[in-house]
């Protein structure tokens, strides 16, 4: 396949996904990054290959699927099998280099963070291209970035990351606000995406390094205790 054919393929995919052609590559990178992060966590729970693949695929395409259903369009991966293939590549990568990958905790934190930022951008851009307002685009971007991780955590029987004290989805919201501000200032979509992505990555890295978090809602201990009827 020559360069012209590759460019034509990317243009067709961009039209199908309703995003600029330059963002198609971002979609692939985000898919691979999220799939690897999901499969890596599934391996820590000793899932079999098929189970790990499902977790990886849910992590990679779950948020985008929810977004597309809410926007009233066919889920993006149903028109192109490359996303399913990306998840399979991630699975075989973890199978072949599992021992090495599991040790790279910091590396895969960066992968997860980059995937979060990239998917947030894709969700925002796709929503704006469909004619929705900025606030809707910010919500859809956050869903695209964070919802796959929620499904992943449910599958591996963990409390979803966005419900814990650690800043995660909030980073997407701030990144979305930056994107909207840049776009409103007549900056190009590429520049807006770059600044938005950098914002998400910086917030996530600083939040983990300095243990930033939102205030925890403190419940009444008495209400947490089961009643006598519940105990029975």
Shape: globular
Share of residues in helices: over 70%
The number of helical elements comes to 10
Low-pLDDT stretches are 12-19
Number of strands: 0
H/E element sequence: HHHHHHHHHH
Q: What is the radius of gyration computed over CA atoms, rounded to a whole number of angstroms?
A: 19 Å
Class from secondary-structure proportions: mainly alpha
Mean pLDDT: 81
> Major beta sheet, specifics?
none
- Tell me the β content: under 5%
Write up this protein.
By secondary structure, the chain is an all-alpha fold. It has 10 helices and no strands. Helix 5 (105-129) crosses helix 7. The model is unreliable at 12-19 (pLDDT under 50).
Brief synopsis:
The protein has 10 helices and no strands. By secondary structure, the chain is mainly α.
Characteristic key phrases:
232 residues, single chain, globular, mainly alpha
Topology, element by element:
Blueprint: H1 3-17, H2 22-44, H3 49-71, H4 82-103, H5 105-129, H6 134-155, H7 169-184, H8 189-209, H9 221-224, H10 228-231
Helix pairs in contact: 1-2, 2-3, 2-4, 2-5, 3-4, 3-6, 5-6, 5-7, 5-8, 6-7, 7-8
């Amino acid at each position: 396949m020559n360069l012209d054919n590759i460019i034509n393929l990317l243009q067709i995919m961009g039209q199908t996904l309703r995003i600029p052609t330059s963002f198609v590559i971002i979609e692939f990178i985000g898919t691979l990054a999220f799939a690897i992060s999901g499969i890596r966590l599934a391996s820590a729970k000793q899932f079999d290959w098929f189970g790990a693949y499902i977790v990886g695929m849910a992590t990679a395409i779950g948020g985008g699927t929810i977004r597309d259903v809410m926007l009233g369009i066919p889920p993006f991966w149903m028109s192109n099998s490359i996303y399913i293939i990306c998840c399979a590549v991630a699975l075989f990568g973890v199978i072949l280099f599992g021992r090495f990958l599991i040790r790279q905790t910091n590396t895969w934190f960066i992968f997860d963070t980059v995937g979060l930022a990239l998917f947030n951008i894709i969700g925002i851009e796709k929503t704006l291209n469909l004619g929705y307002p900025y606030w809707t685009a910010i919500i859809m971007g956050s869903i695209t970035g964070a919802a796959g991780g929620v499904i992943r955590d449910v599958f591996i029987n963990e409390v979803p990351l966005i419900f814990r004290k650690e800043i995660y989805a909030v980073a997407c919201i701030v990144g979305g606000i930056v994107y909207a501000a840049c776009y409103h200032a007549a900056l190009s979509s590429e520049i807006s995406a770059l600044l938005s992505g950098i914002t998400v990555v910086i917030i996530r890295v600083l939040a983990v390094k300095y243990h930033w978090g939102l205030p925890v809602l403190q419940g009444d201990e008495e209400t947490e205790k089961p009643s006598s009827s519940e105990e029975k």
